[in-house]
Amino acid sequence: MANDEPLSEMKEAGEAIGKLAEDEQAFTRAVEAFEKRDADAFRKALESRQLLPHCTRICLWLCTWRCFRICRLVCKDDSSPRSIRGMQTISARS
Which listed residue, of 29, 48, 71, 91, carries a Cα 20 to 30 Å from 80's Cα? Predict the structure, then answer.
């Protein structure tokens, strides 16, 4: 079922970032390494939680979160979606 692939990928990314977030120090090290573009430190933070196989998923999650934060700052828009229904509402306005 090709339609389930994006949902499955999002679920796996959520599980991976959740596992990383269980260890606050590892999560902080990963985020700081990501922000500094320090690939070795990022990989070490993921390795500490046996998450290196999910490196791309976690990296993409952090990229998305970074973009979301930047857009909120730049646009100063309080109508950001807080749920899927919110996303649908905003999409319908466009």
Answer: 29
Give percent of the chain with pLDDT exceeding 70: 78
Q: How many DSSP H helices and E strands does the chain contain?
A: 5, 0
Q: How far is CA 81 from CA 11, 27, 70, 86, in A?
A: 19, 25, 15, 4
Report the alpha-carbon angle 52-63-26, nearest 5. 45
Does the pTM exceed 0.85? no
What number of CA atoms fall less than 13 Å from residue 13's CA on the CB side?
16
Q: Which two tokens stand for residue 34?
A: 């990501």
Question: Comparing C-alpha atoms, which of 64, 90, 67, 68 is closest to residue 79?
Answer: 90
